[in-house]
User: Fold these one by one.
Assistant:
Number 1:
Amino acid sequence: MRHVPALTSFVYGIRGLAWLQVGKPTRRLSTAGATVTCHLLALTLFTTATADEPTRHSFFIAGPTFTGIIGEDGSEAWNAGPPAARDGYVLSGGNVLIAWIDEVQELTRDRQVVFQFKRSADNREIGTAQRLENGRTLISELGPKPRLLEVEPGGQIAVEVALAPETDNAHMQTRMARKLSNENYLVPHLLAFKVKEYSPKGEVIRELATDLKELGGREAENWPFTAIRLKDGNTLVNLTHGNQSVEFDAAGKIVWQASNADFPDDKPFADPCGGQRLPNGNTVIASYGARDEIKIFEITRDKKMVWKYTGPHRVHELQILTTNGKPIEGPPLK
């Protein structure tokens, strides 16, 4: 926060003025009126100074070289140990839920394992993990039997939902699957070029197509990687090889999109994978393909870049935790 020098002297020094020009014409004010005007002016200056403060975030990274938390100063604030995580959440109590290729763990900050689930022998990879309101953990498994699992705290499988990814390529079957507030599941299927919404019984009740002509068709390789159901019912999708972030309405119509065409100098989209919609309406995107360039960036609705991370670690999935010292409120939309 920038300091406004001699603010008190400014406010009280002007109290003795009997005349104050406020635009045109000049009008006479009482001493009290001048004081009120000065306080308003001082408040305006203070607000402007605060608004100029640069954005700083702390955030969780699941990436090939680091799994953990980066502080607002860019330092490694917490390291989970093994790198190459696929997905993860910093939970409200402070523990961290992490999905690696073969297992999911919940860790305390001193790295004690308080929940663990290992991939079944029937499948080849774990994709994602999400802690649910009922205390269970949603886990996606990829392979010959692609499926979603709801797992009890003790490790027992409570719910199993078969998936229809339209490919036998396990690695490309799905990514950031999430359970929705309506009890359905939102699942991006990369090579199907679709985000599918499944009922608890496994029925596909809605699809969002990402190979639309206005997005470049299938030739653009708009593989859906992250799908985020927003509070207004729209769905935000990161299209990984297509290097775009697109928001669809409930009918599948594009209502907002951003790509490198909107940032011709920086070109920050490089295989965008993870993402998050912040409470202020901004969108944060992880460019997994970036090596020495921008690896995470935050953009406004009118496509202004207001923050970026160019540190050493590549990012597969993320979670913004704080902004300028203040925690992000509410469940993360990621």
Number 2:
Amino acid sequence: MAVDKNPSGKRDGKPSSGKREGKSRVSNTDNKKGLRSTRHGDVDKRRADRKNSAESFSKTRSENEGAKKKAFSKDSDNAYKGNKPFKKAKKMETQASIDKRVEKDGIRLNKFIANAGICSRRDADKHIVAGSVTVNGKVVDSMGYRVKSTEEVKFDGTTIQAEKKVYVVLNKPKNFITTREDTHGRRTVMDLLSGMGDVRVYPVGRLDRNTTGVLMFTNDGEMTKRLTHPTYGVKKMYHVTLNHSLKQVHLEKILDGLHLEDGSIYVDSVSYVNNAPKTEVGIEISSGKNRIVRRIFESLGYDVVKLDRVMMAGLTKKNIKRGQWRFLTQEEVNFLKMI
């Protein structure tokens, strides 16, 4: 049987309460707080230290970036991306250097023919193979032949020259034929292009004698093909004036598509002109068939009193008086080349 060696409950000669003394617990807590304070320091002081460190880092980084920019501006050719230098950009070739290179190496024969405004380069290849082109009096049937500036080129017996590309838009009036020459002595649209000098340009597409509005001219054979060939679907917009009001049922028929003597025809859009009588209609179409707009309305029993082309391939007659013309801007030329 176990015997209690301390029946009085004393510990080290003192009475025991059976619980830990509160003083000791408080003392231990205070010691821990003191240990934290000693280990990490004052909270406010630490926050201030972090703020000072961040400001110091930001200042140093700003100074370094400023030094880099300064060095870069002094010698931009030695700019670095990481540890690798940028390659120098090639200088844009000037027109003078282009002319010098062409004079030395020449240009391909098909391009020379296209630059003369005869036809596109693809069609020029066909004419070359067919033997229609001579250089210095000799037939050249090689499509890779390069023409020098000193050589004489003839197409079907007529001397041709590569000309600077010219692009013109005319606001065509009535009673002018869309052709370069007329065997019956009638006035042509070429009579309206005064002040162009010796530059030869050709109408892009056709407008009837009594049709007015936007008509473009150029000596760029490639662009002419793009704007007239049906595969490119170049849109034209017309303001049509009829002899009597267009019925709604006929407008819907046009939208659905019509069958004419040379096949079916579909328009891109057609509607009445806002704030105008129903005799006036706007129509947008991509087809380049002969007299197509007039034939659409004639097939439904209407006579076209007036026909005015207000837009072609994005070109308009804005600020161009009837019978006047202007050169296209470079932005307009660039747009047409993207078609």
Number 3:
Amino acid sequence: MSYKYILKIAFIYTGTILGAGFATGKELVTFFASFSNKGLISFFISCFLLSLTCVAILDSLYKIKVNTYSEFISILFGKFGKYIEYFNLSLLFILFSAMLSGGGATIANTFNINENLSILIFCIITFVALIYGKEAIVNINTFLCPILILGGVLIGIYLYFFKTETVFNNTTKAIISPFVYTSYNAITTISVLFTIKDMVISRKVVYLSSILAGLFIFIIGIFMLLPLIKNYNNIYNSSLPILTLISSENIIKNIYSFTVLAAIFTTAVSNGVALENSFKEKFNINKKLLNIVILIVGVGFSLMGFSNIVSIVYPIFGLIGMFEILVILIGFLTLNQGIDK
């Protein structure tokens, strides 16, 4: 039974991280590819930190038995809990908006239709999934995450060997980049993992699911990052770098577009359900009406543009959020010795 939970949690954590920015290659270009081979080291550090942070979050969920997300955050951060919760909700909304924008951009790019119409189509699909709540997070991530990993690895191999250009080498901010990247990604997973806290039934589940998730992210990421580094000159200004590299290969482009949409969809649903649960704790609102409001506000934020959200807004939230991740990690590392396994 525990192995089923280990795999499901690993897929959910991986699926939440592998959103629009990751699957399209935009995050990888922004945070790692511009640093050439140093970016590979930075990415390895990020995967280690994401795995460690997952351990810390799951371990906290295992030890702290509460019914609401607000109580959980309050226990973790004390008097700062209320402010941390609002910060997390803001970031969750930004990421959810980025998924809507990225989903719309991918559909428009693939089917050559109006981007506003594409966002509307993606919103309708997401709304249907949100109706099923936690069940949607578990089932969608469990089904689609293996496809994302396989798709990312295969497209990375293809691009590495058949699409080669000169790389632009820039080492600026290479040291801090993995910490910023880990920060904003890990923060959004707190509320998502809280929705599946009943799966965290043992310390074995905590550690093995976290290690597995870090491994999944590293495998798909390294295969995608290598061709992005080699082709940096061609894609550094692109909103959809991977799709730009395969734009002349219609069959491959269409197949990978499905992979990108799957990645965006898993993150959109995970973030959307987490937002819904957070607001339901505070306001007595009909579930369907709440989901509609979340989507409308999300579309409003998405007007900032997918590329701007990833390149400008993500790093800002990442820098601010490093304090939060630091508190979680320190709490895990210093207060964990006396807990029975």
